[in-house]
Specification:
The complex is a heterodimer of chains A (about 400) and B (about 475). With about 400 residues, chain A is an alpha/beta fold. Chain A has eleven helices and 13 strands. Chain B is built from 15 helices and 17 strands. Classes of the chains: A alpha/beta (about 400), B alpha/beta (about 475).
Chain lengths: ~400, ~475
């Protein structure tokens, strides 16, 4: 049995809109560092590959394209990259993969921020790429953003919007990655004889020119410990599959069942061929929302209770999800994961319905079962996130062969 | 009680103040170096840790400058991590108001303030050069003269965002299902010259509401900006008398903004060298100056005045007989020139070199960057205290010349002497940086008139 990978997606009090009302939830702590440290440590206790941290440059909303007026759900966020960095000194092994958006942000800042996350975590940083939502645009006032028409995702209008947003995201990934390589690993020479701290021939302009931005480089941050941080993209259709195939290491997909998983993996492979991906193939991960309890029906009862609570003040707040929802025991989930893994899914990003409850069921219920099946690590086998993911060392695109005598 | 000294620790910068050739010099980028300096500062009960920022590597004669330490972390991210290894120390970062957008930067600063329990500070800088702009979406779009108007409006908008959530907006009452006290928490509208934005801010009110605001620089416009909008001025170190004059000038500007003198702290950047005897301190200071001005650095600094390629000159030989090139474009980029009058400077330097028989390197050592405080711990403590008690400053932002151990000796030997005099805390008494600095709760200041009058000329001046 090959090993599968496992991550959790942290977002507020959990992925159910009423999660914060569960007695074990800590809604008053959402904006404190202790909350995030505890969650990351719990995930690390379960030997997970990484945690992701959701983020957006808008307030949460039940609407895709605008703010809502609800007062009965979690609203408010802290910056995910800074949460990850705050958590880093309190964890030792687990990967930290914050969300950073690409639509209004500066790729230069995104690159230096993530490189620095990699330094402060000693090689455990990653990046979850996300495009912006339409109602971010007035927060910046620089340009309008066309909205998707959710009635028909395949319409020409929507395809054009997706091409626009994901094209910019692809450019952002390219810039971020070039900047990470813009310092060669051995650029700092401290050569007292010549008075040079750095060998400037080992620093590189990236000279990126794109439709939305041009970036000269080099970075202000030396090459991060991992060289290249793992990049993850959540994708639901062909255009984002191709974005992932161009620039990511991990693509998270949302199959409805085993056959769908098999079909999506094939489509991702086709997207890889279409864009001419070289190097390691994309890891295809599946996202699942999970409600877990030890005994039969207990999770279903708990979710039903949350569903009722989600409605008790205002209508229209049911849990809707792009990813399949699993309600059951850790045993049932383990069987499903092993089954999907056999169908070609490399790893799973689990979205706990309620934090920390469902996270604990993952670490103390699901993980031991997967370990018994020989499908999951029993100790951290690597010190970097690339290592945990089994990614090869990242070559530097700018590195050129040079005579050994130049080395300090 | 005597006036209390404020002390901050500046992480060694990417310039020749920082000595990298010394065997004790450690990594400029490893997190361990940042942890060491921050924890040393906290051991010494310092008010805050300070990070500078530059968003493009410096160049000279069209090539990346290679003689000084280079490479540093993203400011916000390293401060967030340092919040995890310190408990009281303020965390101040330099962040550019030109190459950031208010919504994003304000939420990052509010997030940092949450994540460090109210210890965040922002040194507001602006730049207008297209050189740095080449790394960013908008490029070098800003007129030099508009930098302070941009900074002022940026800061005003940031404050609007920080206040867009009220205390008590997050109710999180599990039993009755009310998370938010009001449906429009975080709503804001701002319509200005630089920014026209509206929507809802993502981040609830942070412990300090506003992080402490620093303004760096000594220009007239910079001082006015500080008087209107800042909590701390990070100024250049000067003589005691010049310090008193600057102090009077800056504090005198506060009244017209309805502020009291104690609402704005003046902290010059300062370097120091300690010795067991005065003679030993002087000797060490000279040794450090020679480390700071390597033969190559001497030529390079000379080039910044001459604005010419002087790579053929011998650093141990005499100054060039050719005059500075005042007509050509500046050979340095990514950093403001420190020598506004090249011909006059060259004439003075030649005369000095002639008189004292100085080589190029000796001359550069003589005329640049002498350390601010040189002496025994007793002498340095006395001098620092004199500056503070007699209103030449409110304290200092200390710039060690070594990473990461350059502050150790100061904390071990000078801080106890200041504590003995009763002018420096022996324990932290507050939780937030505003409390450490003796600043009142955050409040909103009125918009200064010059900020909304585009026709009024604003003097130039500040560099990052």
């Amino acid at each position: 049995m090959t090993q599968l990978h496992l991550a959790v997606a942290l977002d507020g009090a959990g992925w159910h809109p009423a999660a914060w009302r569960e007695p074990t939830a800590r809604p008053a702590d959402l904006f404190t560092p202790a909350y995030w440290i505890d969650l990351a440590q719990e995930a690390e206790h379960g030997l997970l590959d990484f945690v992701t941290i959701e983020d957006s440059l808008t307030l949460q909303s039940v609407r895709y394209d605008g703010h809502d007026e609800r007062t009965d759900q979690v609203r408010g966020r802290l910056d995910a990259v800074l949460i990850a960095s705050r958590v880093a000194p309190h964890t030792r092994h687990i990967g930290l993969v914050p969300t950073a958006t690409t639509t209004h942000t500066e790729p230069f800042h995104v690159s230096t921020a993530l490189a620095t996350l990699d330094y402060v975590s000693l090689g455990r940083g990653g990046w979850r790429v996300q495009v912006g939502r339409p109602h971010e645009a007035p927060h910046f006032g620089r340009r309008p953003l066309p909205a998707l028409d959710l009635a028909d995702l395949s319409s020409p209008h929507n395809q054009a919007v997706l091409h626009e947003l994901f094209g910019e995201a692809a450019d952002a990934i390219e810039v971020v990655r070039r900047l990470w390589d813009s310092w060669e690993d051995d650029a700092v020479i401290r050569d007292v004889t010549t008075g040079r701290f750095v060998d400037r021939d080992r620093l590189h302009y990236i000279d990126f020119k794109g439709r939305h931005f041009s970036v000269k480089g080099p970075s202000i941050v030396p090459r991060p410990p991992q060289g290249q941080l793992p990049v993850a993209v959540l994708a639901h259709s062909r255009i984002p599959y191709e974005l992932a195939a161009r620039g990511a290491d991990v693509v998270s997909v949302t199959p409805t069942d085993r056959d769908d998983a098999r079909r999506i993996v094939a489509e991702v492979r086709e997207a890889e061929r279409a864009v001419g991906r070289t190097g390691a193939p994309l890891q295809v991960w599946a996202d699942l929302v999970v409600f877990l309890d030890g005994e039969q029906d207990r999770a279903a009862d708990r979710k039903a209770s949350l569903d009722r609570k989600a409605f008790d003040r205002e209508a229209g707040a049911t849990l809707t999800s792009d990813a399949a929802i699993v309600v059951g025991t850790p045993e049932e989930l383990a069987i499903q994961l092993l089954d999907w893994h056999a169908a070609g899914i490399d790893g799973f990003r689990l979205r706990p319905g309620v934090l920390p409850h469902d996270l604990r069921r993952i670490t103390s219920g699901l993980v031991p079962l997967l370990q018994q099946a020989g499908a999951f690590r029993t100790r951290y086998e690597a010190s970097t996130l690339r290592g945990l993911l089994g990614l090869p060392a990242a070559p530097n695109r700018y590195q050129t062969a040079r005579p050994q005598t130049v080395a300090a | 009680m005597s006036k209390q000294v404020i002390l901050a620790a500046h992480f060694p910068g990417v310039n020749n103040t920082t000595v990298w050739s010394d065997p004790a010099s450690g990594s400029q980028i490893d997190f361990a170096s940042f942890v060491h300096l921050a924890q040393t500062a906290e051991r010494g009960k310092f008010d805050f840790f300070f990070l500078a920022e530059g968003l493009r590597l410096r160049e000279q004669r069209g090539k990346i400058h290679d003689l000084d330490v280079v490479g540093r972390p993203n400011t916000l991210v390293v401060l967030a991590a340092l919040a995890g290894v310190t408990t009281h120390l303020g965390l101040a970062g330099t962040l550019n108001a030109t190459f950031n957008e208010p919504y994003e930067l304000a939420r990052q600063l509010a997030s940092l303030d949450h994540l460090c329990g109210g210890r965040a500070a922002w040194n507001v800088v602006t730049s207008s050069d297209a050189f740095t702009g080449a790394n960013f979406r908008r490029g070098g779009y800003l007129d030099h003269a508009d930098r302070y108007r941009r900074a002022e409006e940026f800061l005003r908008l940031a404050r609007t965002l920080w206040e867009s959530w009220a205390d008590g907006d997050v109710v999180a009452n599990q039993s009755d299902g009310v998370f938010l006290a009001r449906a429009d928490a975080g709503a804001f509208v701002h319509s200005g010259v630089q920014f026209q934005v509206e929507g809802r801010f993502t981040t609830p009110r942070s412990p300090q509401v506003h992080p402490v605001i620093l303004q760096a620089g000594d220009s007239d416009a910079g001082r006015e900006f500080a008087a209107a909008s800042a909590d701390v001025v990070f100024s250049r170190h000067s003589t005691f008398e010049d310090g008193q004059a600057a102090y009077r000038d800056v504090k005198g500007r506060l009244a017209r903004y309805g502020r009291r003198p104690e609402d704005l702290k003046i902290l010059p950047g300062a370097t120091f060298v300690l010795g067991d005897t005065p003679g030993e301190a002087v000797e060490r200071a000279h040794h450090i100056r020679r480390q700071q001005v390597s033969p190559q650095t001497a030529i390079l600094l000379l080039e910044q005045v001459w604005n010419r390629d002087l790579s053929g000159y011998d650093p141990d030989g005499p100054l060039p007989s050719v005059d500075p090139d005042v007509s050509g474009p500046s050979i340095i980029q990514g950093r403001a020139s420190m020598f506004p009058d090249p011909l006059g400077t060259a004439a003075r330097w030649r005369a000095l070199a002639e008189e004292k028989k100085l080589s190029i390197r000796d001359l550069i050592i003589e005329v640049t960057g002498r350390q601010s405080f040189i002496g025994t711990p007793e002498q340095v403590a006395s001098e620092i205290n004199r500056f503070v008690q007699e209103d030449a400053s409110d304290g200092f932002i200390l710039v060690p010349h070594l990473t990461p151990g350059g502050l150790d000796e100061f904390v071990d030997r000078v801080v106890p002497l200041l504590q003995e005099r009763g002018v420096f805390r022996t324990e932290y008494t507050g939780a937030t940086l505003r409390e450490h600095l003796g600043l009142g709760p955050a409040r909103v200041w009125p918009t200064p008139a010059w900020a909304t009058q585009p026709e009024q000329p604003v003097a130039s001046g500040v560099t990052a």
